[in-house]
Design goal:
binds magnesium ion; 4-stranded mixed β-sheet; dITP diphosphatase activity; binds inosine 5'-triphosphate; Maf protein; 308 residues; ribonucleoside triphosphate phosphatase activity; 7 helices; 6-stranded mixed β-sheet; alpha+beta
C-alpha cells in the first residue's frame, strides 16, 4: 500500500512514487499550478523516488506546506522553509538553499524551455511575452541533468531534450534544436552547429571554423547560400509530442558584422535585407528568423494539440 499524505486543513494529497524520479503536481479542477519546488525536490528528495501531489483547489502555498511535510517524513530531517520573494530552506537553523521565486498569478502562465542557451531564451522570452507566458530555462533548474544530443536529426535532438525534461518534471516542456546549414558544405554544420569547432566550442571558434571552411571553396556569393533551421518539439505527460519547423534563407558573409544576437548571427546575411542577423535588433530578428517562423507554425497547431 502506498502511504498517502494529506494536508492538515486542505484537500491536497501526496504519495511517493517508487523508482520514478519525477515531481508531478496536478490540480484537478483548475489551471495547472506553478510551484517552484523542482530545485528543492531534485536536491533533497531521496534518489530514485518521485512524488505526486494532487490538489483539489488551487492553493500554491498549501501545496508547498504539504511538500515539506512529506520531505521531512521521507528524509527524517527537520527541513523548514520560508517563502516570500525568495524561497529559503533551512535545517537546524542553517540556510541550505535560497531561490528567487514568483508564485504564479492566475493570469501569467510559465513555460519551461529545455535549453541552456541564453541567446535562444532571450528570443523566446520576447516572443512568448506577447502570448502571456513567462519563460524559464534549464539554467533556472541546476539540478536537472544535461541531455546528450545523440540524435542525427534536429527532430531527434529536440525530442530528446523536450521529452526527457518533461518526463523528469511532469510538466509541459518546449525544446528547440537548431543550426546553420550551408549549401556548399552539404548542409553542415547542421545538427553539429554548436560543436562545429569541437565540444564546448565558443561562438567565435565556430564562426572562425566556418569562414575557414568556405575560404577556398566558396568565393562567389551564390556559393555561400545557407539557411538557419529550427525544429521545435513540445512534450507533455501522456501526450504524443508536437513537432514543427521553421527555416530562414540567407548567405554567409566574408567577415563578421554586427554585435547583437548569438552563435552564427554575425556571419548570417538575411536574403531580404542584406543585413547580418547580428546587425538586427532582437525585435527585427524575431520578425523573420527560423525560430520565429517555427513558433508561428507551432501556434497554428498548439491549441488543437492542447485539447487532445
Ligand atoms: O541545446 P541547447 O541547450 O538548446 O543549446 P545549444 O546552443 O546547444 O543549441 P543547439 O543544440 O540547438 O545548437 C544550435 C547551435 O546553432 C547555432 N544557432 C542556432 N540558432 C541560432 C541563431 O538564431 N543565431 C545564431 N546561431 C544560431 C548556435 O551556434 C547554437 O549553439
Ligand atoms: Mg545543444
Amino acid at each position: 500500500m502506498k502511504k498517502l499524505y494529506k494536508h492538515t486543513t486542505r484537500d491536497i494529497f501526496a504519495f511517493v512514487l517508487e523508482d520514478q524520479r519525477v515531481l508531478k503536481i496536478e490540480n484537478i479542477f483548475g489551471e495547472p499550478i506553478e510551484i517552484p519546488l523542482y530545485s528543492v525536490f531534485f536536491k533533497y528528495f531521496p534518489a530514485e523516488q518521485g512524488l505526486k501531489i494532487i490538489a483539489v483547489d488551487e492553493a500554491p502555498a498549501d501545496v508547498m506546506d504539504l511538500f515539506f511535510q512529506v520531505l521531512r517524513d521521507v528524509t527524517g530531517q527537520d527541513y523548514q522553509y520560508s517563502l516570500g520573494q525568495v524561497l529559503t530552506v533551512e535545517l537546524s537553523g542553517q540556510n541550505l538553499h535560497s531561490e528567487t521565486v514568483s508564485l504564479k498569478s492566475k493570469a501569467q502562465k510559465t513555460l519551461l524551455i529545455a535549453t541552456r542557451n541564453e541567446g535562444k531564451t532571450r528570443e523566446f522570452k520576447a516572443m512568448f511575452s506577447q502570448l502571456g507566458y513567462a519563460i524559464k530555462n534549464l539554467n533556472d533548474f541546476p539540478e536537472l541533468p544535461d541531455v546528450a544530443e545523440t540524435g542525427m536529426t534536429f527532430e531527434e535532438n529536440a525530442r530528446l531534450k523536450a521529452e526527457t525534461i518533461s518526463e523528469l518534471t511532469g510538466e509541459m516542456v518546449l525544446a528547440d534544436d537548431s543550426g546553420l546549414m550551408v549549401d556548399v558544405l552539404g548542409g553542415l554544420p547542421g545538427v553539429w552547429s554548436a560543436r562545429f569547432a569541437g565540444d564546448h566550442a565558443t561562438d567565435a571558434a565556430n564562426n572562425a571554423k566556418l569562414l575557414h571552411e568556405l575560404a577556398s571553396t566558396a568565393i562567389s556569393p551564390e556559393k555561400r547560400k545557407a539557411k538557419f533551421h529550427t525544429t521545435l518539439v513540445v512534450a507533455a505527460p501522456e501526450k504524443d509530442s508536437l513537432v514543427v519547423e521553421g527555416e530562414w534563407p540567407g548567405e554567409i558573409a566574408t567577415i563578421p558584422k554586427g554585435d547583437d544576437g548569438f552563435g552564427y548571427d554575425p556571419l548570417f546575411v538575411d536574403e531580404e535585407t542584406g543585413r547580418t542577423a547580428a546587425q538586427m535588433t532582437l525585435e527585427q530578428k524575431n520578425q523573420v528568423s527560423h525560430r520565429a517562423r517555427a513558433l508561428k507554425n507551432l501556434l497554428k497547431k498548439w491549441p488543437e494539440w492542447l485539447r487532445q
